[in-house]
């Protein structure tokens, strides 16, 4: 821990060996929260397929590793939309192990994605945040420069609740 009560994390590219931990983190959020609009946690094979597709597309996929060597969270960039005119715009995804939230893993992961986006020449990063009550993710994105650009009201229905999607955007210098 540093003097501010947050843990130090090592950020590195994700590896196939990290996928069981990544799946466990994501599965928790699918099954217990509203950040993802998926309702059934994907299998390890499906998570591997998604990971391989992002890797093949050249997108950054990062993990934050705690001092004990455990994956504390993961994040990646992917296509915002498939049409070629969107090729300079990406969408971010950030998920943190529920027992490690509030310690800075999300912040260092998102900062790592922003740096990777700049290095790759992307111009815009879009955050599509599940649930307008997801103040943690909204606050994280705001803290790193994302601006709110809209809310899609009641576009998801999960666990008996209608859910919004909050759209935020970060413009990177040319």
What does this protein structure show overall?
The protein is an alpha+beta fold and 174 residues long. Helix content is 29%, strand content 32%. The protein has a domain of 114 residues: 3-Layer(aba) Sandwich (Aminopeptidase). It has a seven-stranded mixed sheet. Helix 1 packs across helix 2. The chain starts with 9 loop residues before the first strand and ends with a strand. 29% of the residues are buried.
Layout: helices, strands, pairs:
Layout: E1 10-13, H1 19-32, H2 44-56, E2 61-65, E3 71-79, E4 89-96, H3 105-119, E5 124-130, H4 135-143, E6 147-158, E7 161-171
Parallel strand pairs: 4-5
Antiparallel strand pairs: 1-2, 2-3, 3-4, 5-7, 6-7
Helix pairs in contact: 1-2
Q: Please provide the count of β strands.
A: 7
Terminal Cα span: 37 Å
Q: In percent, how much strand structure appears in the residues?
A: 25-35%
Q: Identify the overall geometry.
A: globular
**How would you characterize the largest beta sheet?**
7 strands, mixed
Structural class: alpha+beta
CATH architecture of the domain at 10-123: 3-Layer(aba) Sandwich
CATH fold title of the domain at 10-123: Aminopeptidase
- What is the CATH class designation of the domain at 10-123? Alpha Beta
Q: Share of helix among residues?
A: 25-40%
Number of helices: 4
The strand order across the widest sheet is 1-2-3-4-5-7-6
Q: Looking at the chains present, what oligomeric state does this protein adopt?
A: single chain
In short:
The protein has helices spanning 19-32, 44-56, 105-119, 135-143; strands at 10-13, 61-65, 71-79, 89-96, 124-130, 147-158, 161-171. The chain is α+β, with helices and mostly antiparallel strands and 174 residues long.
